[in-house]
Fold each of these.
Amino acid sequence: MKILIYGSTGWIGRATLKYLAENFPTSDITLVSSAKKSFKYKDKTYQVFDNSYLNSIKDREYDYFFNYAFPTGYNAVKYSEEDFISITNR
């Protein structure tokens, strides 16, 4: 099973990864966020790719796509409601 989690470093993305790692350990999980990072969950280190990585996988097929990329914290309150919705929809 191939899975893409966009917005993977936020709390919803990490919770989804935790669930998938525990319940579907053989899945091929691709993690994308606003910045390159890596983090460890249990005994496995996960690489998180930045947004530019999406261009390199545009023709790849995934069984599941989770989109949790939306402004949070300070980034959420600095926008008007209309701008927040527009940015989130992009």
Note: Helices lie at 11-23, 53-56, 73-77, 81-89.
Amino acid sequence: IQQEIERKLKEDDAITKANIISVNDEWLISYQMKPLEKWGKKKHLNSLKKSIEKIDSSQKFSVSNDYKLFIESEKLLDVRDEKKVKDKLKELKKLMEEET
């Protein structure tokens, strides 16, 4: 699944960097966009989320293009303790829900 997600993200010209975090059946995908592409940020996010959810409907995907979530997820990539990652993932998902 991760390889398919990476392929989709690489195919998208608007994305400059992306982080993919997986714990059990939960995924957090955060990414940054090129500056001029940010005008269609919301539309792009919805389109990308739909295409990623088509990969495997049994998984839970959270997709965000928010800069703060990108930075926090980048810090999370270095953590090796699964429990800490899971706890931080819950916290980040709450942040995502507050934004919308």
Note: Helices lie at 2-11, 41-53, 67-76, 82-99.
Amino acid sequence: MRVFTVIAIGLALTTGGSFAREPGSFKKEVLPILEAHCFKCHGPENQESGLRLDSRAAMLSGGDFGPAIVPGDAAKSFLVEVVTTDDTDIQMPPEGTRQSSKQEAILTNWIEDGAVLPGQMDI
């Protein structure tokens, strides 16, 4: 993981991980990132590596490499690892435009704050 991940996790802790607590923040901030960078390969139509990222239950059960998220612990979340790494063997997306530092921080904060998806219960 890049040093950025540590900084983003620190930001999540010092800001209280405000992203998931604000009404509509998932739809406004997290969902557009997943739609732009993840759903083509890990959405309702395709699930490469057995991973689907369009529901909380699917993220928790994960794919071939285990759970995509560990709510409340971004450092243990595979999703954070693959979107922040410089390792071309595992970085996501593998081609095309990657997430910005701000988008990485949004995903990290959302996971640190419990990875809440409106209307979806914990499993």
Note: The longest helix spans residues 25-37.
